[in-house]
Amino acid sequence: MIGTASRDNHPYLEQMGAVAVTYGEGQIERIVAAAPEGVDVVLDAAGHENLRTAVDLTSDRSRIGTIVDMALARELECQWISSDRSAERLRELVDLCATGQLRVTVRAAYLLDETGQAHRDVESGHGRGKVVLLVDEGS
Questions:
Q1: Which of 20, 16, 28 minimizes the C-alpha distance to 4?
Q2: How far apart are CA 38 and CA 59, in angstroms?
Q3: For residues 38 and 56, is the Cβ–Cβ distance under 8 A?
Q4: Nearby residues of 135 by Cβ (< 8 Å), 6 or more positions away
Q5: From first to last of its 139 residues, what are the pLDDT tens digits of the chain?
Q6: Pairing relation of β-strands 130-134 and 106-111?
Q7: If we measure between CA atoms, which residue out of 49, 1, 38 comes closest to residue 21?
Q8: Taking CA atoms, which of 63, 107, 110, 115 is between 20 and 30 Å from 130?
Q9: What is the pTM of this model?
C-alpha cells in the first residue's frame, strides 16, 4: 500500500503500514519507483488532480475510486464511492469508536461562532484529521 502526503505526515502513513510518498510535482515518478510492478487499485481521498494522476498510473479505470470528486470521476469514468447515511449507521460508527475499533483523528475543534474559521481550515486542504464544530446545547 502506498500513501501520498506531505513529508511531515510520512510517519503517520508508515505507522498504518503504508509506503509514504510525497505528493506534488514528480509524484507519479515517486509512485512508480515505490511500485515498479505497477499500481492495481487507487483510492482518492484528496481530490483536486489526483484522479488524473490515478488514470496515468492504473489502466483499469473501474479500479480507481474517489470519495471526493464525483464530477471528475464521471468525466474520467472512474468509480464514485459513497455510503448510505442513517441514524442506525451513525450508531454503529459510534459503537466502533467506543470499543476502539475505529479511530477518528480530530485536528481542530471550533465553537459554532467560529464556523468561518473552521471552513477556512477545511478549505486550506492541509492537515490530518477532522474539523469539528462544537454546539452548546443550552443556547
A1: 20
A2: 10
A3: no
A4: 112
A5: 999 988 988 999 999 999 999 988 899 999 999 999 999 999 998 877 888 999 999 989 999 999 988 999 999 999 999 988 999 999 999 999 999 999 888 999 999 999 999 999 988 876 788 999 998 765 4
A6: parallel
A7: 1
A8: 63
A9: 0.74
Distance CA 4, CA 27 (A): 8
3-class state of residue 61 by DSSP: helix
Which cell is 46 given? 484528496
Instruction: Give the strand pairing for 106-111 and 79-80.
Output: unpaired
Cell for 9? 505526515
Q: CA-based angle 126:127:128, to the nearest 5?
A: 135
Q: Which three cell numbers stand for residue 75?
A: 468525466
